[in-house]
Amino acid sequence: MENLISLVNKIQRACTALGDHGEATALPTLWDSLPSIAVVGGQSSGKSSVLESVVGKDFLPRGSGIVTRRPLVLQLHKIDEGSREYAEFLHLPRKRFTDFAAVRREIQDETDRETGRTKQISSVPIHLSIYSPNVVNLTLIDLPGLTKVAVGELHLCFYSWLPSYLHAFFFFTILQFMNIQYVFSNAEGQPDSIVQDIENMVRSYIEKPNCIILAISPANQDLATSDAIKISREVDPTGERTLGVLTKIDLMDKGTDAADILEGKSYRLKFPWVGVVNRSQADINKNVDMIAARHREREYFASTPEYKHLAHRMGSEHLAKMLSKHLEVVIKSKIPGIQSLVNKTIAELESELSRLGKPIAADAGGKLYSIMEICRLFDQIYKEHLDGVRSGGDKIYNVFDNQLPAALKRLQFDKQLSMENIRKLITEADGYQPHLIAPEQGYRRLIESSVVSIRGPAEAAVDAFQNLGALHGSQLADTFLFIIQVHALLKELVHKAISETIELKQYPALRVEVSDAAIESLERMKQASKKATLQLVDMECSYLTVDFFRKLPQDVDKGGNPTHSIFDRYNDSYLRRIGSTVLSYVNMVCASLRNSIPKSIVYCQVREAKRSLLDHFFTELGKLEQKQLSSLLNEDPAVMERRAALAKRLELYRSAQAEIDAVAWSK
């Protein structure tokens, strides 16, 4: 069970070190989920004396007004008998204090470091660990004492008729008579709202459902006016979390006692009240030893008739043991919920940090590496689109499988293969000497004119990427619009990959540069594809497939009969046969292009996009100075702050997870 208190101690220290004080922030807080015991009481209630009695050491600052101005997380660790007592502060991790007067001075100094010497208050806790054979394993949070009124708010005119040298005497006498607790507010530079500020801080701790409230009330005052009981009942009306401690029992008026309260007959709480007898101011002034004070306390309860039957559950030693046991029970019941919260919050923090991206490197090499890594992620996503891991690449196949064949089928050669054009080209090819067997030169001119007719509109189609509508008037333009469509699809995939690269969202300037570089690269690839595709058409024009003609039927009527007159050779029937043959050849060329053009496109555009989309950008990137690299990695300062805060909070939760797992394995 002792491991459980040590576990919470470690997590609390980690919380403080990493900025989690349980305050209301935009970050998840682990502090609020940790069971703790908060010590609450009015000034002059004996709160500090109770804590020193539990510890067995005189170590807390004392004085007039508000002395405790920051929460003090006091962690007690029991060590072996005979070992030397010492104390450690979280803010001074490598320094041990064996002189507890020095501990008191350090608490004062550390308070001033946070709040200044203006006597302000702060919710940032001080962590103090005390190791002693005379303590039990326990953690307490000492909160500033509750006050009712600040000096500056009192009107002192009611004794203005007195001589000035008697003002202070009557003032403090009246306050003591009226049981009014006071603070030196304006005199010490404290704000006018100090009373409410303290109450708000105390309330922020004790209103949390995992906080155990140790309410300190003096027995020589009416409990109906106890600040500790009043505020405890406001935040814990059922009393499930409230433990009551009654101080100054030995200072009650003669003829009165606190037996009814301690027996639970009046001002009943769910848990029994514990009475303590602290050192008097005279004892403190004489530096009476704490161990001797504990011994006198035991004797007081054992020898006082009103309390001797309750002596076994009275005193600071019993209080410490009871608190330790109670805290262990509460921690044990809360551990599963804490573990679940830690695991859930780690996942949420990791998810948000992933969304925000990695922090920016400070040096030029680190910046260049970060940019290259982000570009690599973009390039990988782009390739996944092309390869079918992500959607989009299938649209390119659709262009090749459906749109290209349809475009080739729509080609018409009516103009090139009209009777007038055939007769004209055949006659011109013959020149002064009519062909003898077949009009070979005429065939060549007809085929070339038909195939070349594909080239012009194709080139226009490629160049007209910015004005597609201008081509719609040409019946051949849509033949090669698939080149533009493939280019447009590749651009579309660039934009998709840009939007899916989370890291690029982090850096808008880099996102624009990468997008522009990719589009420019695709434009160069489109031009290379255009050139290669048109070369395929030129190849078909430059060399005819001889086997096609060799396989034609060798009919003298089709090849021409030398006995016919020159005029019979150019009759319509003969020319139609020539036109039919040329059309068959051109259709064969289109079928060949149907297979070769997709290969050219894929080789020049798709393959190159996969292989070297950002190569030119990388070359230029290596020439940039650090300032230029930094401009690419500019991001919103709010995002940077959020990332740093989340990283610290994630470190806290991972530390807590490791500590909880270690305790679980030890069992």
Tell me what you see in this structure.
- By secondary structure, the chain is an alpha/beta fold.
- The protein has 23 helices and eleven strands.
- The protein has helices at residues 2-17, 47-55, 100-115, 164-177, 194-206, 227-235, 259-262, 281-285, 290-303, 316-356, 364-387, 393-409, 419-430, 440-463, 481-500, 502-506, 508-542, 546-550, 556-559, 572-612, 615-621, 626-632, 637-666, and strands spanning 36-41, 72-78, 86-89, 92-97, 126-132, 138-142, 149-150, 182-183, 211-218, 242-247, 274-275.
- A nine-stranded mixed β-sheet has the order 4-3-5-2-6-1-9-10-11, sandwiched between helices.
- Helix 6 links the parallel strand 9 and strand 10 (242-247).
- Helix 1 (2-17) packs across helix 10.
- It starts with a helix and ends with a helix.
- Mean pLDDT is 79; it is low at 151-172, 174-187, 460-479 and 556-560.
- Pfam families: Dynamin_M (PF01031), Dynamin_N (PF00350), GED (PF02212).
- Keywords: GTP-binding, Motor protein, Nucleotide-binding.
- InterPro entries: Dynamin (IPR022812), Dynamin_GTPase (IPR001401), Dynamin_GTPase_CS (IPR019762), Dynamin_N (IPR045063), Dynamin_stalk (IPR000375), G_DYNAMIN_dom (IPR030381), GED (IPR003130), GED_dom (IPR020850).
- Residues 31-336 form the Dynamin-type G domain.
- One of its GO terms (molecular function) is GTP binding.
